[in-house]
Amino acid sequence: MQRATGNEQRAKTQKHKIMIKRYTRKVMGDIWTDENRYQTWLKVEILACEALAKKGRIPQKAVDNIRKKAGFSIKRIEEIEAETKHDVIAFLTNVAEHVGSDSRYIHMGLTSSDILDTSMAYLLRQAGKIILKDCKILLQTIKKKAFKHKNTVMVGRSHGIHAEPITFGLKLAVWYDEMRRNKERFEHAVETISFGKVSGAVGTFANISPDVEAYVCKKLGLKPAPASTQIVQRDRHAEYFTSMAIMASSIEKMAVEIRHLQRTEVLEAEEFFSKGQKGSSAMPHKRNPIGSENICGLARIIRSNAMASLENIPLWHERDISHSSVERVIAPDSTILIDYILNRITKIIDNLIVYPERMKQNLNMFKGLVFSQQVLLALAESGATREDSYKIVQAIAMRAWKDKNDFKALILKNKKICSQLSPEKIEEIFDVSYHLKYISTIFNRVFVDS
């Protein structure tokens, strides 16, 4: 395969940075403004009028007039709602003030949730598209960094304790694989939420035709809910919010790892620290992983919102409104927050400072102790029992650990081990490449379709 020239590589890197910058400008918050919410309600109402006109239930001339004059004033809606204590009625009353007598055809045969739930599906789908674009650029960012550090050797840890050698690229490949699952899971959730309903007060279509529902949903890029009560059933929303919660937890996992790697005692990687940035009001030397810490905190909110969405599923009979107040909070909050932390972790990983030499130092901190399993296996293969082999190796390992001795040197001095393993075999055991021989195989499996 022909390798990219320096200029080509720099061009790719610059293009990648531009893509990251572009996606950080996405205006998730605009989806949840009062202006956009009421505009979406109006769109649903007008589409329902269009469908009714096609069925001959209202004059086409009236629909043309509604489309031309329909509008609203947020201030006026708030004034009316202060009296009616009903937001949809306040909205419709204000729209009627703009339209005039033809407003009698607006909301014909509908109930409030026909507008609210269909609009919510439309807005969540819009938000979902932004989130999926965020996922795509994060995946590209992780992949780029993974290949850069495919062979950057570091110590693997379990329980926070040195285990065996890995590469930093492998760590990132694991993140990529998990984030891809998050993207696929959320793609499904977006499709699950993309169902509207225009079926009337209890979902029976008593005063409206299923054809109207089909028309409205198609125009909005939605599907009609096969069966609904007064509302679209909230298991759909719960899938959407729990998918975001799982995604947030995966992102938090990355952030927690970066926080650990940035600890002074570890310092194998750290967040980029910009010129003029300050880490502490008291201690000028501080360089803190504030971005990763921020992500960890916000992920907690997204997870708690998912619990609220699960509690919205069991409602009384054909509908109550206990879910409504919850969704007014969690829909904008969770989508805005996941959009934010996706963009933030993307920037952190893209600009992450990695210290390969420090990784090597930490790997060799106990002078070969991480190769203890290879000594154990070699002894067992030479004829010793696994139990005896374990005892011998563990005794030497504990001595190396306690006295900070060279584990390999202690192995070479042990008569029992040397009677079964040649010096050449022991040298082979302490070759780090033994642990890395399948890194390319793993990369091929992870990045096969990317």
What does it look like?
- The chain has 450 residues and is mainly alpha-helical.
- The protein folds into three domains: 31-105, Fumarase/aspartase (N-terminal domain) (Fumarase C, Chain B, domain 1, Orthogonal Bundle), CATH 1.10.275.10; 112-150 and 164-271 and 285-354, Fumarase/aspartase (Central domain) (Fumarase C, Chain A, domain 2, Up-down Bundle), CATH 1.20.200; 365-446, Ribonucleotide Reductase Protein R1, domain 1 (Orthogonal Bundle).
- 66% of the residues lie in helices and 5% in strands.
- The protein has 20 helices and six strands.
- It has a two-stranded antiparallel sheet with strand order 1-2.
- α9 links the parallel β3 and β4.
- α8 (168-193) packs antiparallel against α10 and α14 packs antiparallel against α15.
- The longest helix has 37 residues, at 112-148.
- The chain is elongated and about 100 Å long.
Strand content: under 5%
Q: What structural class results from the helix and strand content? A: mainly alpha
Q: Please tally the helical runs, counting DSSP H or I stretches of 4 or more residues.
A: 20
- CATH hierarchy class name of the largest domain: Mainly Alpha
Q: Flag low-confidence runs.
A: 1-6, 19-26
Instruction: Write the H/E string, N to C.
Output: HHHHHHHEEHEHEHEHHEHHHHHHHH
- Report the end-to-end length measured between terminal Cα atoms: 17 Å
